[in-house]
Amino acid sequence: MLLWSAGTARSAELRIEIQGLQAVFSTQELLEHPDTRQITVALDPVYQRKMRYQGLPLNRLLEAFSLPVEGEMEMIASDGFVSLVPLHLLAPGVEEGAGEGAEAWLAIEPPEAPWPSLAEGKGRTGPFYLVWLKPEESDIRSEQWPYALTAIRLVEPAVKRWPQLAVDPALPADDAARAGQKLFIVQCMPCHRLNEAGTASMGPDLNKPVSATSYLTEQGLRQLVRDPASLRSWPEMRMPGFDEEALSDAEIDQIIAYLKHMANR
Question: What value, to the nearest 5°, has the Cα angle with vertex 148 and ends 142 and 150?
Answer without folding.
Answer: 115
